Amino acid sequence: MRHPVEPVAVAVHRKQLPAAGAVERQPAQAAQELLPHQRLSAREQVLLGLIASGRRLPDIAAQLDLPERTVGVYRARLMEKMRMSSAAELAHYARRHHLLPPSK
């Protein structure tokens, strides 16, 4: 009597089905292929645009109706997520990738 797993093992061996490890690695590989700004939440994208357009933290906090400290934490996390060490780097990246909000 054949074991119920045998047809799956044969299909994997014949490359008709991906191996289990290959299926698990695909989402991680896809995430690595994204640009840093494509991994950001909607709030982080808004913040990136505001920082890149030269707004100061108090102004951003007032516009988003958030405490200045919260905006500072968001900025720190944003820089960490994008592996950048300054607001100037964020601004340069945003300009290079056309992420600035439309000017009024």
From TrEMBL:
Keywords: DNA-binding, Transcription, Transcription regulation. SUPFAM superfamilies: C-terminal effector domain of the bipartite response regulators. One of its GO terms (molecular function) is DNA binding. Gene3D superfamilies: Winged helix-like DNA-binding domain superfamily/Winged helix DNA-binding domain (1.10.10.10). Pfam families: GerE (PF00196). PANTHER family: DNA-BINDING TRANSCRIPTIONAL ACTIVATOR DEVR_DOSR. This is HTH luxR-type domain-containing protein. The lineage of its organism: Bacteria, Pseudomonadati, Pseudomonadota, Betaproteobacteria, Burkholderiales.
